[in-house]
Amino acid sequence: MEMDPAESGSTSEAARTAAAWRAAGEQGDVAAAGRCLAATIEVVSPLTAQFRFCGPLQVQDMLAAAFEVISDIRYHTEVGDDVTRALFYRGRCGTEQFEEAQLLRFDRDGLITELTLFGRPLPGVTAVMAAIGPELLRRQGRPGMARAVGAATRPLAAMTRLGEAHLVPLAEPGRN
């Protein structure tokens, strides 16, 4: 179900921000996405509970890395209200397709104060993890750590691709 706030007659600041956020994501436009963020923005990652990205600068840095490794972003569903919305898109990281859910919370001005990300399927999520971590670290001027994180995450991404292709089909319901 695709929801276009302009078609539904919704003209709230949150609806306008969500529409601008979707457009920025589909175009890979970090600056446009940054205009949707409140000064107090926090991003809750699906990849780690160790830290959050806080403030527009950290979030825009994370988005720049994401837009570098994620392509073909197409939003397909939006639900919610002027306080909280959930947006869903399909995209690709390398050869892996994946889907991401984004839980957005808005302030009184309609800017995003919190963004919580959820992803599926596992091969797509691990492909994003293996690509975005090193990209983000390179952008931060930490090439050695980028190589270490890449070396640590590539095997997990490979294992999930292998499992998805060869083991998961054996567990299909109704298969003997």
What do these coordinates show?
The protein is built from 6 helices and 6 strands, in the order αααββαββββαα. It has a domain at 5-120: Nuclear Transport Factor 2, Chain: A, CATH 3.10.450.50. Strands 2-1-6-5-4-3 form a 6-stranded mixed beta sheet. The protein has 176 residues and is α+β, with helices and mostly antiparallel strands. The N and C termini lie far apart (35 Å). A hairpin with an 8-residue loop joins β1 (37-44) and β2. It has helices spanning 5-8, 13-27, 30-34, 55-69, 122-139, 143-167, and strands at 37-44, 53-54, 71-80, 84-93, 96-106, 112-120. The longest helix is centred in the C-terminal third of the chain and has 25 residues, at 143-167.
